[in-house]
Design brief:
By secondary structure, the protein is mainly alpha-helical. 70% of the residues lie in helices and 0% in strands. The protein is elongated and about 100 Å long. Keywords: Repeat.
């Protein structure tokens, strides 16, 4: 019963039951004491339990007690304490008059086995104390304690994760020299390092050794490698790596293939992306929703939305259900190509198929409707979005505000800007510039100046490298010559609120004063 309570981590109940057991005059055997040590909250209690174990002569029981103490110390976060307890046994040191130490130091190295080292080495590795872990590992031979595969694997994995691959490879060679067979985990620890670093050459070398030993490289590592290569514009190298896997007889998963297809699309190498995709199909792979989404998104970004629409038909014919991401790509593709009617039709199909639009869907279509000269449609969609409980984000607000400005609706745009500010969403400079420009175009210089003043006060004036810099400069010049705003612009200039880069050609009050 105590054992089950300990196993279920009901430590207080286990210790309470043990107290009842003692009070009843029943002695606990070493097995029960070992389990109780795992419940001990303090080292003093551990010492008491060990004292009750008495003069243990059974070596296996000693090892079990010792390992239980190590596990409990580490479980309480006392890794350093556990480490020094191991060092005490290995080096015959005396660390202090502690009950736990006193019990074990008299027993010597007979307390320890490979499990003891696995416990402490694993804890040190998790703490990033790799040199200390290696030192203990190297010291095992001196006390006649046998190493095992698990210890080698834990160290190799920790070293690889810490980017100490040279040490990992040294340990791998040592492991093989000692007669231990590296496992799939051993090789994948090192393979994973090279994949994370995007080192296709070394990854391939390890992969060949794995293949010779009949081990499989893990999908997650292969996917990481091809993503790293594609991230650095090396999609062709990533594709070649997968084909070399096939030549070795290792069948890559669909996931890394999809990552390479995506890599080609991002390089705008659409034909190569499609060629690889069709090659994958010819090998018997059945695309999943993610693979289809990559293909559809890539074609839409390449302004080949009609082809993407055909891919959607194939997807549906294959019994797959398009996701929100699928429809978002198509809606964006139709909007970007100026086919707003098809974008709206796609949105309607999305609703009809019970696929929930998200804020990206609405933002894309609102922007598309504004660009198509349909601001009222954009506002209707905005209202529909809010009714359905989808909250607009700052991108949605800015898409609508800038879109309304493009369509000569600055007053409505200003209303949504104020709504955006109420929600404490940060406004980008280009939105305010668009609003100011729209007010000027609508012959409303007073409102245009008010927005300019906000731009100045909020320090949103664009840098000279910004494309909106020239637009703001032109607006300031216009406002400086209009009687409704000239004096206020002049005040901003003379106060130094507007940088000199915006002031060339600006009319100031000084220039208009008559000469004496």
């Amino acid at each position: 019963l105590i054992g089950e309570l300990c196993k279920g981590k009901e430590h207080k109940k286990a210790l309470h039951l043990y107290s009842e057991m003692k009070n009843s005059g029943i002695s606990a055997d070493a097995g029960v004491l070992t389990k109780l040590i795992s419940c001990a909250c303090e080292e003093e209690l551990m010492a008491q339990l060990l004292e009750e174990a008495g003069d243990v002569h059974d070596v296996e029981i000693l090892k079990s007690l010792y390992n239980s103490v190590l596990n409990r110390l580490i479980g309480q976060g006392l890794v350093d304490r556990a480490y020094h307890l191991v060092k005490m046994i290995m080096e015959g040191q005396t660390l202090g008059d502690n009950g736990v130490e006193t019990f074990f130091k008299l027993k010597g190295i007979m307390c320890m086995n490979s499990t003891s080292f696995t416990i402490i080495v694993t804890a040190l590795c998790q703490d990033g104390r790799l040199d200390e872990a290696l030192q203990l590992f190297r010291g095992m031979d001196k006390i006649g304690c046998e190493k095992d595969v698990l210890l080698h694997n834990n160290l190799i994995n920790a070293l690889s994760n810490a980017d100490r691959v040279v040490d990992s490879l040294d340990l791998l060679r040592e492991m093989k020299h000692s007669g231990f067979k590296p496992t799939q985990f051993t090789y994948n620890s090192i393979y994973g390092y090279f994949c994370r670093k995007g080192d296709a050459v070394e990854a391939k070398n390890i992969m060949k050794e794995m293949w010779y030993c009949q081990h499989e490289p893990w999908i997650k590592h292969s996917t990481t490698l091809v993503k790293q290569l594609c991230k650095h514009r090396r999609a062709t190298e990533a594709s070649n790596f997968l084909f070399e896997m096939v030549e070795l007889g290792i069948v890559p998963h669909l996931i890394p293939y999809s990552a390479v297809v995506d890599g080609f699309f991002k390089l705008q190498e659409v034909d190569q992306a499609l060629e690889l995709y069709h090659d994958v199909l010819s090998r018997g792979y059945r695309p999943d929703v993610v693979a289809y989404n990559i293909l559809i998104n890539g074609l839409c970004k390449a302004k080949r939305t009609s082809e993407a629409q055909e891919v959607l038909k194939n997807m549906l014919a294959g019994g797959l259900v398009p996701s929100t991401v699928t429809y978002n790509s198509l809606i964006d593709g139709w909007c970007k190509s100026g086919n707003i009617d098809l974008a709206v039709k796609c949105f309607s199909k999305m609703i009809g198929d019970n696929v929930e639009p998200n804020v990206i869907t609405y933002t894309t279509l609102i922007d598309g409707l504004c660009n198509a000269g349909l601001p009222d449609g954009a506002i209707m969609l905005w209202n529909e979005m809010e009714v359905k409980g989808c909250s607009p984000n700052r991108i949605t607000f800015m898409a609508l505000i800038s879109g309304l400005c493009k369509n000569g609706r600055p007053d409505t745009a200003l209303f949504y800007l104020r709504e955006m500010e109420k929600k404490e969403l940060a406004v980008d400079s280009f939105v305010c510039v668009a609003l100011m420009d729209s007010f000027l175009s609508n012959d409303n210089p007073q409102s245009a100046f008010n927005i300019l003043k906000e731009i100045v006060d909020k320090e949103l004036l664009p840098d000279p490298a910004d494309k909106n810099h020239a637009l703001v400069k032109e607006a300031i010049t216009k406002l400086s010559y209009l009687p409704q705003t000239s004096s206020r612009v002049s005040t901003l200039v003379t106060e130094g609120s507007i940088p000199i880069t915006f002031c060339l050609g600006v009319k100031t009050e000084i220039e208009t004063q008559p000469s004496t």
